[in-house]
Write a structure and sequence with these properties.
The chain is mainly beta and 147 residues long. The protein has one domain. The chain has 1 helix and 8 strands. It has a 5-stranded antiparallel beta sheet with strand order 6-5-4-7-8, with no helix packed on it. The longest helix has 8 residues. The protein is extended and about 65 Å long. The chain binds zinc ion. The site of zinc ion (ZN) has 8 residues, from loops. Zinc ion (ZN) binds next to loops.
C-alpha cells in the first residue's frame, strides 16, 4: 500500500474503449496500393527526386510530386536485429528491421525482413516485397524477404 500525504491514493476503475479514426491524407494512395500488392512512390515534378515512403511535396525543393510504381526487388542497405520493441511488436521479437535500397528510388525504405534467419541477413542481400493478404492499413501490410 502506498501512502501519499498520509492518504491512500484513490483508485477508480472504469472501462475505457475508443475507436481511433485517422486519415493518411494525401499519402492514402500508398496504403490503398499495398492491398493491390503494389508499392507506390512519388517523384518531384520539378527536381525529379523520388520518395519512398511517398511525399506529396518534395523534401528537397517543395514542389508537388506525382505517383509512380516502385520496383518490388532491391537490396538491404543496413539492418538491425531488434530484441526489444514497442508494446505492439513485443510478440514478434526478435525480428529484423532494415533499410531497403530500391532501383530508381532516392530514399531508403524502412521495413521488416521476414522468413530470414537472424544470422543470415547481410548488407547487400537481395530482397523482394511481400504483402499481407488481409490488409490492416498500416505499414505492416508490407515487408521484405530474401529474393
Ligand atoms: Zn523537388
Amino acid at each position: 500500500m502506498t501512502h501519499v500525504y498520509n492518504t491512500d491514493p484513490l483508485q477508480v476503475h472504469r472501462h475505457y474503449e475508443i475507436d481511433y479514426i485517422h486519415s493518411y491524407g494525401e499519402v492514402s494512395e500508398f496504403f490503398i496500393a499495398l492491398k493491390k500488392k503494389k508499392l507506390m512512390a512519388t517523384r518531384c515534378l520539378s527536381c525529379g527526386a523520388t520518395w519512398l515512403p511517398p511525399r506529396r511535396d518534395c523534401g528537397k525543393c517543395g514542389a508537388k510530386t506525382e505517383w509512380f510504381e516502385a520496383p518490388l526487388q532491391g537490396k538491404v542497405h543496413t539492418f538491425s536485429v531488434l530484441h526489444f520493441a514497442a508494446e505492439a511488436f513485443l510478440p514478434e521479437v526478435p525480428f529484423i528491421l532494415a533499410y531497403i535500397e530500391l532501383p530508381g528510388i532516392d530514399t531508403l525504405f524502412l521495413t521488416k525482413i521476414k522468413n530470414c534467419g537472424l544470422e543470415d541477413v547481410y548488407v547487400g542481400m537481395p530482397v523482394k516485397a511481400k504483402f499481407r493478404r488481409l490488409v490492416d492499413w498500416t505499414p505492416n501490410d508490407i515487408w521484405f524477404e530474401p529474393a
